[in-house]
Amino acid sequence: MYPVSTRFLAALAESHTVVTEVTLFRTDGQVETLEHTGGSVTADRGQAIRRTCTVTLADLSLIPQTAADKLATYGARVRLARGVQFSDGTRELVPLGIFRVDTVTGDPDQGPVTLAGKSLECVVTDDKFTTPYTATGTAVAAITALIQRSVPGASVINRATDAPIGPRTWDIQADPWAAVQEVAAAIGAECYVDADGVFVVAELPDLLTTAPAWTVAAGEGGVLISAKRGMTSDKVHNAVLARGENTQTNTAPVSALVVDSDPSSPTYWDGPFGHRPDFYSSSTLTTTAACTAAATLKLRAAKAPNASGDLSALPNPAVEPGDVLRVVYIDGTRELHQVQGLTIPLDEGGDAPITTISAKEDR
């Protein structure tokens, strides 16, 4: 969860003044604040581009007519934030992301104007390879080079354990962002752009060991509006076989099978769920340890959807995909849920839908 004060979290469950901010970074270097009437930000770890936004504007002059207009879709960016104004007049704003402006539409006579944008993964994924590209060295160095090839000077933060990778060459027209994710998987990690617009390499937090970031409780003083639980075995796997073979270095084939070895898990490899393996291969995997790390990451996500939830809560802009939430129902039952995605509104009304990828009883 994005770092916020205790005062901020307490205010969310009480009557408070919502403040939102839309800052435009124009292609000519100018920066200005846009008056807006609504919109939302959706963050979903299941999407290649993790964050998307819409912003509603009342000023009809913002509908672009030429490439020189300030909201023309030729590289302008917006930074969005939502927060609380406290009774003493001070404000605490939480960033919701930095977005490339991709679409601006509206009725030129009556409005409104709607701006749509994507977080900065889109800059990398759109910059397809025009010549064959080879990644070498360590995983984090290769990821950084791939990102900075498209976003010069981009900040890349590593929270995973770095390791060497085998050389990997992508063909013309391949997706560089898919290449980033393939290299990240070699060290058991994923890569995404956070709310500050920073590229992050990190493992998916483990639901079983990660401390809850926020309590979503029903009843008086709570923030839970409604909840729905579900369970499915569709696309659920309880083992991953990761394999690597690199012909460029004449490295012998390596592999590792990682299974759900927890007897108390509903997807236990030797339990009634049966054997449902998934498979992953990449030439970046040159050691058994690398295969094990990649398979462990893939398994953590592959077995997660066996329990899922749809929550509706009062908006907390600090919540991020991957966070673990403690949910307390009206009867006192407690569960831990891991966030898959959520939507934060840019206006005072409404709630924040949250989808989760896994859940377990919280004792």
Strand count, sense and barrel status of the largest sheet are: 13 strands, mixed
Elements, N to C (H/E):
HEEEEEEEHEHEEHEEEEEEEHEEEE
Number of domains: 4
Beta content comes to 35-45%
Distance between the termini: 22 Å
Please report the number of helical segments: 5
Mean pLDDT: 91
* CATH top level label of the largest domain: Mainly Beta
By helix and strand content, what is the structural category?
Answer: mainly beta
Tell me what you see in this structure.
With about 375 residues, this protein is mainly beta. The chain has 5 helices and 21 strands. It has helices spanning about 5-10, 120-125, 140-150, 175-185, 290-300, and strands spanning about 15-25, 30-35, 40-45, 50-55, 75-85, 90-105, 115-120, 135, 155-160, 170, 190-195, 200, 215, 225-230, 240-245, 250-260, 275-280, 305-315, 325-330, 335-345, 350-360. The strands form 4 sheets. Strands 1, 2, 3, 4, 5, 6, 7, 13, 14, 18, 19, 20 and 21 form a 13-stranded mixed β-sheet that branches. It has a 3-stranded mixed β-sheet with strand order 9-12-11, with helices on one face. Strands 16-15-17 form a 3-stranded mixed β-sheet. A hairpin with a 6-residue loop joins strand 20 and strand 21. Helix 3 (about 140-150) packs antiparallel against helix 4. It starts with 5 loop residues before the first helix and ends with a strand. The mean pLDDT is about 90.
